[in-house]
Design goal:
repeat; six-stranded antiparallel sheet
Amino acid sequence: MAATLLARLTGSSTKYEPLPRIFHISGRVGSKVVVQGGRTKDFSDKSRQQLSSVVEIFDPYSELWEQRQVEGDAPSPGTCAAASASLCDDLYSFGGFDGRQHFNTLHRLDSKTWCWSQMSPQNADGAPMPKTFCAMIAFRNSLVVFGGHGVPRGPTEPQSFIQTTTFTDGEGWTNELHMYNLSEGVWSCPATTGERPPPCAGHTFTAVDDRRAVVFGGKMESRAKMNDVYIIDLSTM
């Protein structure tokens, strides 16, 4: 049933191929690429549940796809526009929107067992705001999350959170930077120096060596698209 819903056949080929989708997550696991979730043309509750119950795995050497069932505490069915990063052959997913609410939860997919688990930070109140279209990278034994568009955590908004004037539903843009230490299970919001990127969403965040990462592009609160480049030294902030 899952293959019928999630795959399509091209021409006379019998090779498995995932359905077209947007706003999914992906990451490198070993020598392969793992894709999970997102939004397809069919966004019914049944389709969303089935999309969240599998991962699609692409081998760039054989150029073949395969599908695997996953278990455990996966991101909410239908979650789109989450951030993802891979570390030690595991895939991490943060945030996203399932059509009903924004999230600021962090999930880990163990590539040995194909089982999801939700991380349990020691200081959940220090997590980033619930948001979409943020970006995440792995840095040493931490995950770093930057920017995004979402909703305040509670009565006290982060100082870096910019309340939008173009929406009426309480959503906004941010340039907050958070780190999650995987060994300690703790979120932190390190102070940075230098010229900080403006609040933005839909940007890319790419590690270029063992210290530095590059933020490029994105969309600001004004809806203007950017082609600015910002470099952060994560060892000195």
